[in-house]
Amino acid sequence: MRGFYIGRFQPYHNGHHQMVKEIATEVDELVLGIGSAGDSHSTRNPFTAGERIMMVTKSVVDFDITTYAVPIEDLERNSVWVSHVQSMSPAFDVAYSNNPLVIQLFKEAGVEVRQSPMFNRGVLQGTELRDRMISGEDWRSLVPEPVAGVIDEIGGIERIQRVSDTDSGGYDTDEGTDPA
Ligand SMILES: Nc1ncnc2c1ncn2[C@@H]1O[C@H](COP(=O)(O)OP(=O)(O)OP(=O)(O)O)[C@@H](O)[C@H]1O
Ligand SMILES: NC(=O)c1ccc[n+]([C@@H]2O[C@H](COP(=O)(O)O)[C@@H](O)[C@H]2O)c1
């Protein structure tokens, strides 16, 4: 059986990793959808699709599951989004999400959806991690170790600090427009 789990993964953190660990007990293969794939270099979406693929690919080696990372760009039209996802992904039997819009769209399209508990959501959320990266607080303890390695390799902290400066200067283009 093959599952599908989409997120923006900006960055991929221990909450996502725990979810993949649990999914790995239910399916043999998992497609990781890299959502909002066209977005990068903003405060909300600092990392490119390719950089996020590195983060997930290096992290999921922890688990006994075959994974495929597939970039999925956003569309203006929610009503055809599931077809768009299916057109880009290997076929899957079940979708995993805790995002209410994603759950609704898959259910309306007749796709089985499974939710998971939220793990330590007080700190394990992308927004909190990005805030910590900008302010210089600890974020490394909240991501799998290979994710910190990728962020170091690409100069990710310097990047998010610079773009957050630019964003607050009024040049941001995507803040708050994420359809999910
Ligand atoms: N701590 C967590 N525990 C379980 N699921 C999570 C956790 N954080 C995120 N998720 C789920 O993982 C999927 C992808 O989430 P996403 O990439 O948007 O991360 P996020 O932490 O919610 O980020 P952001 O704060 O940037 O929106 C969503 O279904 C989301 O609900
Ligand atoms: N119309 C659309 O393009 C559409 C609809 C629903 C979800 N999405 C995307 O799916 C992903 C969902 O991931 P999150 O749960 O991390 O928000 C996001 O990248 C979001 O932009 C896109």
User: What is the percent of helical residues?
Assistant: 40-55%
Structural class given helices, strands, pairing? alpha/beta
Q: Which sequence of SSEs, written as H and E, runs from N to C?
A: EHEHEHEHEHHH
Our count of helices gives: 7
Strand content: 5-15%
CATH architecture: 3-Layer(aba) Sandwich
How far the N terminus sits from the C terminus, by CA atoms, comes to 27 Å
- Give me the count of strands: 5
The biggest beta sheet reads: 5 strands, parallel
Low-confidence stretches: none
Report the C-alpha radius of gyration, rounded: 16 Å
**Overall domain count:** 1
Q: How would you describe the shape?
A: globular
CATH structural class? Alpha Beta
CATH topology group: Rossmann fold
Give, in spatial order, the strands making up the sheet with the most strands.
3-2-1-4-5
Bound molecules: adenosine-5'-triphosphate, beta-nicotinamide ribose monophosphate
Instruction: Tell me, rounded to a whole number, the average pLDDT.
Output: 94
- The H-level CATH homologous superfamily, spelled out, is HUPs
Secondary structure: elements and pairs:
Layout: E1 2-7, H1 14-23, E2 29-34, H2 49-59, E3 66-71, H3 81-88, E4 94-96, H4 100-108, E5 112-114, H5 126-135, H6 145-153, H7 156-171
Parallel strand pairs: 1-2, 1-4, 2-3, 4-5
The structure holds adenosine-5'-triphosphate and beta-nicotinamide ribose monophosphate.
What does this structure look like?
The protein has one domain: Rossmann fold (3-Layer(aba) Sandwich). It has 7 helices and 5 strands. It has a 5-stranded parallel beta sheet, sandwiched between helices. Helix 2 links the parallel strand 2 and strand 3. Helix 2 packs antiparallel against helix 6 and helix 5 crosses helix 7. It starts with a strand and ends in a 9-residue tail after the last helix. The mean pLDDT is 94. It binds adenosine-5'-triphosphate and beta-nicotinamide ribose monophosphate. Beta-nicotinamide ribose monophosphate (NMN) binds next to strand 1 and helix 4.
